[in-house]
Amino acid sequence: MPRTEWPHRNGRPCIQIVLTLAADGQTFPRTVLADTGAGALKAGIEFILEEDDCLLCGGNPDQFVTLGGAYVGSFPIYVLPVQLPALGFAQNMRVVGVPSIPAGFDGIACFSFLNRFHYGNFGDPDVFGLES
Amino acid sequence: MSTAATVQDLNRDLARRINQEARSNPHSPYANKFVGIANGQVVVVADDLDAMVRRLRQAEPDPTKTICVEASRDYEEVHEIWGLN
Q: Are strands A47-50 and A89-98 parallel, antiparallel or unpaired?
C-alpha cells in the first residue's frame, strides 16, 4: 500500500496537500495541521484553509457552515481540487474558508479527510504519515 | 450591486430552496443529491461531490457564478473544532 510521511512541524503532526492556482494552473503546496479533533466524521468538511487561498484556487462556493470551539461563527465553504500526489489522490473537497489559521501552518486537515486513509506514525515517532 | 453579486444572490436563494425542499420531502428529486447551480439555474445533479463539481465547472468555468449544495444536509449544525493550543 502506498504511504507518505512528513516530519512534525512545531512538534505537531502535519501533511502536505497540493492545490492548484486558478490564474496559471501552477501547483500550490500547503502544509496543514493533521487534526483528528477538527470536526466529526460526518461533518462534511475536509479542510480549513485561509479564505484567500480558497479564492486563489478558484474554489466553487458551497453553503456556510457553523463552527464552534477554536473557530466560532459562520464561515463559507468552498469546493476545490486537492491532491496528494504520492498517494495518487486527487478529488474535489469541501474546504472551510477562515480569516486566519494556526501559526506555522497553512491550514487544518480535518478528521473526515484523515480518516479516508490509515494514519499515524507507523512506528517512527518523528513523523506523521498517511497510507492508502 | 454588481452582476456577480446578483447572480450569487440568485444562486444562494435557489440553493436554499432546494435544500429546504429536500429536507422536508424525502421523495424530492434532490434529496441526498449534490446539486450544482450556475447563473440561477440547476445545471447538474449527481450522487457524489467530485462528479458534480467536475460537471459544474464544465458548464460554468467562472466559480463566482456557481454554487454547490448537498441537498438534505443540515447546514445549521454546529461543528466543533477542538482547541489548537
A: parallel
- Strand pairing partners for B45? B35
- Residue A14's CATH number: 2.40.70.10
- Chain B contact set for A68 (CB, 8 A): 78-81
- DSSP annotation of A125: T
Q: Does residue A73 lie within any of the structural domains?
A: yes
Give the span between the Cα atoms of A98 and A72, in whole angstroms.
10
Residue B5 corresponds to which amino acid?
A: A
Residue A70: inside a domain: yes
* pLDDT tens by residue, chain A, 132 residues: 899 999 999 999 999 999 999 999 999 999 999 999 999 898 899 999 999 999 999 999 999 999 999 999 999 999 999 999 999 999 999 999 999 998 999 999 999 999 999 999 999 999 999 999
Q: Is residue A92 part of a domain?
A: yes
A74 CB neighbours in chain B (<8 A) are none
Q: Would A50 be classed as within a structural domain?
A: yes
Note if the pTM is more than 0.90: yes
